[in-house]
Amino acid sequence: MKKILFVLCLALTTVAVAQNNVGGNSLNSQVQSYSFSSHPQHAAYAPMSQEQNILASSSYSSASGDRPASDFPQPESVSLGVAARELREQHAPVKKARVVWINQ
To answer: Where are the alpha helices (DSSP H) in the chain?
Structure first.
């Protein structure tokens, strides 16, 4: 089986190398120079255009300042003991493992 697989891989490699060299399509080592078209107006200086209003309405108003914390609802804090009791109650009905493995 290994011999057949080896011969098959060898044959496929030979075919792949032969495909690359058929018709003289190998890479040419001659230097190629590229010339890029120039755009002289692309970097020319021009005056800035007038500002444009992009808002939906023509009137614009803004305000700044601080809002007191009492404007925002704050959740009631839960004591640590109550949170621990709730977690213990949630974990109580979960099945426990019958076997405990200790690797030594």
So the answer is: 2-21, 80-91
